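Quick one before lunch.
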Amino acid sequence: MKEVSGANWWRQAAVYQIYPRSFSDSNGDGLGDIKGITAKVPYLNALGIDAVWLSPFYPSALADGGYDVDDYRDVDPRLGSLADFDEMTATLHAAGIKLIVDIVPNHSSNRHEWFKEALASPKGSAARDRYIFRDGKGLNGEFPPSDWESIFGGPAWERITEPDGTPGQWYMHLFAKEQPDFNWDNPEVRADFLKTLRFWADRGVDGFRIDVAHALTKDLSEPLPAKADLLAENETLDGTHPFWDRDEVHEIYAAWRDLFNEYNPPRTAVAEAWVHADRRGRYASPEGLGQAFNFDLLQAAFDAEQFREIITRNLAESEITGASSTWVFSNHDVVRHATRYGLPKGPGRNGPAQAWLMSGGKEPALNRELGIRRARAASLLMLALPGSAYLYQGEELGLHEVVEIPDTDRQDPAFFRNPGVDIGRDGCRVPLPWTTEGIAFGFGDAAAHLPQPEWFSAYAVAAQQDNPESTLSLYREALRLRSSLQTEEQLKWLNHPGDSVLHFIRPNGWQSVTNFGSEPVELPAGTVLVSSSPLSKGKLPADTTAWII
Ligand code: NOJ
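Model of the 1-deoxynojirimycin complex:
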């Protein structure tokens, strides 16, 4: 049986990601907040999830949607207070829902006390050593220390003005310039994050999601390699890259694990590490964070062979490492899977969806119905897999990516730093529609901080909750069934005569069958528990998953 209350609750959990500023706005300022989440605990309870993962809610200027943290041990006053946070935690726990919070250890914001102190302190000072400062190249240090680019585009170095007003050193930022990277060789940095983890664990937080967990330790010895010499692909990372996936990063997580294990039950963690499957186990080991995101399905097309290969490989990997697998189709960084699956197949995590976004939703043509149909089939398949399923707010409504956001309303630094090339991630972060009408479709009493399109009305919770055919009803039913059917045991693939059909069974007789093809296929014998689309004359139609027992 799935363990829900003991030390291993997280191994088979269904975890629901909340992007706090876009979930529910309790005070009508257009920004979602903590009290808004507390008020929606009955909704989360009815949905049937085991845990909530909260994206950053810390004080932040929102240069990167809250992943630019000013203070790791407080709540953004626009979102509430620590007392509100405690009330939310207690309300979630009373409903039997665990809480995971996001920890952002690679970088702080440029408004963090330490960074302000670093700017006000001289070159070579202890305050500067908490970050990564270097002299520039050129006669007057006017060129960056290397030609590296940040993930959001543009240089990975920013020049500062020294306290005496002269142009000075440069600091490194893998992301936006408002996100200076910490120097993890500095013991003060290490000690401070232990303090932060303890702060939240003591408040009753059950687990942590670790942002860019594979970037913390860096080898910046001179000469810094040129951009062209850096291995670009996650696939080829082997521990020698100067900042991605270095082996010594695991010393940090071993110390964190010691801290987690002081608690009862031990605190849990999941690494956001974009590394190849065969290096993921290092993050997910019991001596480390315990679990790591597996983004392989998220990057795949809706395709039986790709799904089978990814599932087989990851389950084999988890057999070796002893870590439970994780599965995810959508999050706050990628184009929603209902939209990805309604576009022609293509490579990469967003594939043709980037082109679709850049064209303002014109090209290639989006087949909305097909996208939702496939997303429902894929999600039902995922919920039948051994391991943890990570769901992103709004996918239970079948929400599509929002393309209708005027440039003037966009917030993502990926958009501002890549004009004409990258539209950014705002389209999956638009506040949820709760009601079919009203200024913000029930999100709050004021216009939402990102504009919601008119078509959100049809996707609102209120429009779906009493309709047994709705995507919300499907997720509720699937999660309800999963909570009694899910086990630690692995799956066995079964042969199905149809082309492009994936069929597997768990030791308790729970079967999942997905038709990725274009024609209806025979259903295996047994009782149908749930299907992602109505059956067609007793057959499993195209782009549909059914559970059978
Ligand atoms: C990964 C987060 O998921 C993303 O939203 C953020 O921009 C980067 N890390 C930087 O913190």
